[in-house]
């Protein structure tokens, strides 16, 4: 399947993407994960992106398009892909549209995961992430803590609160979402690709999508 996952930070895009990869081997492509990996590895991309990310601002479109143009041409994308956190602005959506025409790829759907703001705020404040760039497993101190506090169940690395998951950065990220990313809902509606799924449980979202995609 070839999907765009839209939704505010904390809507569950990453969790839904992970569940969908298990269905048909499509790959999850998270620009946030790629950028955090680059920051930790200290690459040039990471150095350019770090300050924007810490503030909860978007990284410039040109950097993101450079990443995605390469990533979408890697062989593992042939089975399908789930775009998690990309596109985030209208210029990114326009550039993606042109890129997909160039690569002769057709999207199945742009899925808008619609979750109430109170649920999102609660989730982001209680979310913890594995700091290993190759893992980045997600936990929640209330609903799904790691077995041993502060230690990742999957790889044994430290589980931390992200720099951009302080209360101040979270409210900035949500404002950025409303201003820059929410307009993509109208963009994909016009393209005839939009499907809105309302639900606070990722399993429910996945069941609805499976039905819509005939899986
Ligand atoms: P995420 O894990 O998707 O919430 O992304 C974390 C941070 O990475 C965001 O707050 C942005 O600073 C940056 N980022 C991720 N994806 C994008 C994108 N498509 N465009 C611009 N910035 C992005």
List keywords for this structure.
215 residues, alpha/beta, Rossmann fold, 5-stranded parallel beta sheet, 3-stranded antiparallel beta sheet, 9 helices, 8 strands, binds adenosine monophosphate
Provide the list of bound ligands, each named once.
adenosine monophosphate
Radius of gyration: 16 Å
What's the total helix number?
9
- The rough form would be described as globular
Q: List the helices and strands in order.
A: EHEHHHEHEHEEEHHEH
Stated plainly, the CATH topology of the domain at 2-115 and 179-212 is called Rossmann fold
What percent strand? Answer: 15-25%
The CATH architecture of the domain at 2-115 and 179-212 would be 3-Layer(aba) Sandwich
Please describe the biggest sheet, giving its number of strands, its sense, and whether it closes into a barrel: 5 strands, parallel
Unreliable sequence segments: none
The top level CATH class name of the domain at 2-115 and 179-212: Alpha Beta
Question: How many DSSP-defined strands?
Answer: 8
Q: CATH superfamily assignment of the domain at 2-115 and 179-212?
A: P-loop containing nucleotide triphosphate hydrolases
Q: Strand order of the main beta sheet, please? A: 2-3-1-4-8
């Amino acid at each position: 399947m070839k999907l765009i996952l839209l939704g505010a930070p904390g809507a569950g895009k990453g969790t839904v993407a992970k569940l969908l990869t298990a269905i048909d081997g499509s790959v999850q492509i998270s620009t946030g994960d790629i950028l955090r990996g680059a920051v930790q590895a200290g690459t040039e991309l990471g150095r350019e992106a770090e300050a924007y990310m810490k503030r909860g601002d978007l990284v410039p479109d040109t950097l993101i398009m450079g990443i995605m143009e390469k990533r979408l041409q890697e062989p593992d994308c042939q089975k399908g892909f789930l775009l998690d956190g990309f596109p985030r602005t209208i210029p990114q959506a326009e550039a993606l549209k042109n890129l997909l025409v160039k690569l002769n790829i057709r999207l199945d759907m742009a899925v808008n995961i619609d979750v109430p703001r109170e649920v999102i705020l609660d989730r982001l404040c209680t979310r913890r992430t594995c700091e290993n760039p190759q893992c980045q497993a997600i936990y929640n101190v209330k609903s799904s803590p790691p077995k041993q506090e502060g230690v990742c169940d999957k790889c044994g690395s430290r589980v931390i609160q992200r720099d951009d998951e302080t209360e101040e950065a979270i409210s900035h990220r949500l404002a950025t979402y409303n201003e820059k990313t929410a307009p993509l809902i109208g963009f994909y509606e016009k393209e005839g690709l939009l499907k809105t799924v309302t639900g606070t449980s990722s399993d429910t979202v996945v069941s609805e999508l499976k039905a819509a995609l005939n899986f």
